[in-house]
Amino acid sequence: MLAGGVLVGAVNIYLASSLLPTAVADIGGAGFYAWNMTICLVVMVIATMLVSRLLARSGNVGAYRLGFALFLVGSVACAASPAMPVLLAGRGVQGFGAGVLPGLGFAVIRSALPRRLWTRGNALMSAMYGLGNFRGSGARRPVRPVVRSARKPQSSEP
Question: Is 21 helix (H, G, I), strand (E, B) or coil?
Answer without folding.
Answer: helix
